[in-house]
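Deviation from plan, reported transparently: nicotinamide-adenine-dinucleotide complex.
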Amino acid sequence: MPASFDLTIRASTGAYDVRIGEGVFGELLAQRPDDPIIADDFFADRPELDEQRALFMAAEESNKTLAGAERLIAGLRDRGTGRSDQLLAVGGGITQDVATLVASLYMRGLVWSFVPTTLLAMADSCIGGKSSINVGPYKNLAGNFHPPAVIVVDPAFIATLEAEDRAGGLCEAMKISFCRGPQAYERYLALVADLRPDGTGAAPLLDAVLRSKQWFIEVDEFDQAERRQLNFGHTFAHALEAATGFGVSHGIAVGLGVVAAERLAVALDGDAAAQPALTDHAASLVRQAPDLAARLAERDQERFAQAFLSDKKHGADGLHVILPARGGATEERVIARGDASLALVTRALDDAIRMVTG
Ligand SMILES: NC(=O)c1ccc[n+]([C@@H]2O[C@H](COP(=O)([O-])OP(=O)(O)OC[C@H]3O[C@@H](n4cnc5c(N)ncnc54)[C@H](O)[C@@H]3O)[C@@H](O)[C@H]2O)c1
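Because the crystal trials were delayed, the predicted structure below was used instead.
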């Protein structure tokens, strides 16, 4: 009997359920034979997602936009979707980000369900209710909160993922677990050792990681305090994605960003701030992305600096970064704006890239 786990997330809009187990996707489709579907076009050939029902989108950052959402909203109307219909979204984090916005806007809001199909979406983005939309050169600049009513996590989807997407999903899982504290991180390391590329061993790992994230999104649903810790690695990651024209996937950029954040902590506080167990594990994941050194060599340093400095998490008081804390977990630090800080940040990224690709 395959493992099956259930979580209930408490949100201000009401509680929503997460079901983890093999076969849960098929069960959901059978229960909802008529729901309109927004799906990643990777699944365009699946007979259960026929074109009468499904609107497909390419999972590309260039589609995670207001224009991408508008196309889907018009497509739903073309298919006769009404106010009382429920929407089903099937895909990874990109599909989810757009579907969340579409579900929140279509006729002022549809109830929707989500089936995450990447490890990143299963372990991280599927809960928390955020949409994050790219605007012009700015990653995740616009968005809102509109959680799905039901999330079903079917580890069978893992089997077809590319190595980069599998490793990238684990980078987010590692990050969440580290942010939650030493016990959660130890548990993650034990469970991830049992994960196989076909998805065997994923259910208990996903259950543990989602429970860690659950804590952050329940104590701070709207990202004002504790939940900000989950930005660990992300200021570096978003800037690196921009500097490579999204030539490095989000999850892998987060893995590199975690190493860079650790290098920045060492630059600020000395060797006692080093976290070798974390950086070794992050590096082992990041190295699974093929041809990474060549892609990183193409990065535009000026674009990296601009994107880092314009990150929406910074404040009038300085640059806000999430760094590893002494004794485990993470802490938000503020560093002064200026050339000296930018030089430290750039060196931290260069050191991280050398550690991972060297
Ligand atoms: N809203 C949130 O809370 C949140 C949290 C973390 C990340 N994100 C966003 O998520 C995005 C990254 O998401 P992602 O890593 O899931 O990537 P993704 O949605 O871009 O998918 C990655 C690739 O995997 C393919 N794919 C999807 N499912 C597959 C499967 N089962 N088998 C084979 N291929 C499959 C896609 O077609 C795509 O090529 C980023 O834009 C990031 O900003 C959002």
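DSSP finds 13 helices and eleven strands in the chain. We consider this an acceptable substitute for the interim report.
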